[in-house]
Amino acid sequence: MKNKIYDVLLVGTGLSSLAFIDSYLEKNKKIDVISFKRNTKEKSKINNKHIFKILPPQMIGEENQVLDYFHFNKIKVNKKNNFFGSLEFGGLSNYWGLQIDKNILGDINHLKKNTQIKILNSFKELFKKLSLIGNFDDSTKNPFEKNQYIGKEFFNKNYDLYLDEPILAFQKKSNRIIKFSDINEDKDKLTPLNFYNKHLKKKNITFHNYFIEEIKDYKNLVLINCKNSKEKKTFLTKKLILGCGTLITTKLIMDYLNISKEVRINHHPRLFSLYFSKNKWKNAMKFQPSHLHLKSKSKPYLFTADFRPGNKIIIDAIIKFKFFLSPFKFIINIFRENLIFSNILIEPKHGNLFMKKKNSFYEIYSKNKDVKKLFKKINNTVFKFLKKTKRFLPFYINYFPGYGADFHYFGTILMGKKGKLSVNEKCQLRNNKKIYLIDGSVLNFKKNKYPLGLIMANSRRIGKEI
Ligand SMILES: Cc1cc2nc3c(=O)[nH]c(=O)nc-3n(C[C@H](O)[C@H](O)[C@H](O)COP(=O)(O)OP(=O)(O)OC[C@H]3O[C@@H](n4cnc5c(N)ncnc54)[C@H](O)[C@@H]3O)c2cc1C
Questions:
Q1: Most CB atoms within 10 A, among 30, 169, 254, 446?
Q2: Which domain holds residue 174?
Q3: How far apart are the C-alpha atoms of 434 and 451, rounded to whole Å?
Q4: Do residue 85 and residue 233 come from a single domain?
Q5: Minimum-distance ligand 1 atom for the alpha carbon of 452
């Protein structure tokens, strides 16, 4: 075989991969990246439309990217589930809600102290370099204008609940407190393209337009078989870095290790809730992320509820899925800032997503499990708190969109655990130290309900150390 031998080859261009590239190129001159460029005008050839029971508002119009992600990666999603991925530059990271949970250390305290410190420092470096907004600690802050509607004064006697502010992934720095009305939603968002244009464009990065199908051993190298719409190609590398997002990274490793047993995909089951505020909540943006999180301290129900006022994109998405509401669209839009939308996210132990090889495909499915009772209890807790503020009307609407519709997939090949399906603290696969995993597959998120900050901090750390 006369293929070129790469020192390091990265697969993926989501935010986990870009955070890796950024720190890797601080010490190294160049990097090669496998990144598939799908023809965006082309319609997908597959038709399992059930996965669009409720497409996230940010992803409406991107159906073909999602369908081809499943098609090329040979994944079937069971009819009961709602699962998303995207095969394009940036992947799922193009659509995220820009909220980062500040709890960076809470879910990694089983790792060595030194590893924890390196991840924490990498997070602070990202915060400063990307000019994220919010307060992390006294030396790492870039404050934004606070929410004025529900505040800490309602917590005097409540020991179980507390309010937290997320860090928001807008790249903006100002000497004054940042106002949402001053944010440019196209330019300031931490999207993969903005990250690339601002920090990586002038660097020496070679993109290879293929998607990866298979990993194999070849002498003392790693061999990967790739494809695009025209041809097949084989790459050989001394070190392979996988940042394909949890699902595809896990699938490739299961294939490589010949694992045919069921693998659990950890995730945060989500309840959508709609509450009705007596006053309008200001909203200067097309898609404003929540800047207020209600969290619980008590173990049985570790949850996070976020709150944001309605906006035109959300209202359009609701009308698309509940068409009978279309005659009322005008009125709904007048009151949209009184409509407070909440995601209640709960711990992965209540999750219910699995993956298993079935012939030439991998199937994603869930089992019989009732999470609705638990959500009912948690919603009661949240609603009781909102009622105490005397700023809400006494009714609400709940909707459980199914397992997988939370878009947070992680914790399949954990760092610091034992067994074939695990990585060491340098994120090297136990059975082959030449393969590194840098996305959500190596981390679990029990306390932290908005994982991308920690995922990026970890991949940045590996980029520095490799
Ligand atoms: C609507 C929505 C809202 C969200 N909100 C939040 C939030 O507020 N906070 C938060 O923390 N998280 C949020 N998430 C989750 C977050 O977006 C993901 O955790 C994150 O984007 C994962 O990043 P990644 O780099 O690991 O994977 P991805 O961004 O999915 O990147 C995977 C990469 O691999 C590529 N790829 C896939 N298969 C192949 C293949 N076979 N060959 C080659 N390349 C391949 C893809 O093209 C892509 O470049 C949200 C997700 C969605 C969809």
A1: 169
A2: 142-189+269-346+382-402
A3: 26
A4: yes
A5: 11
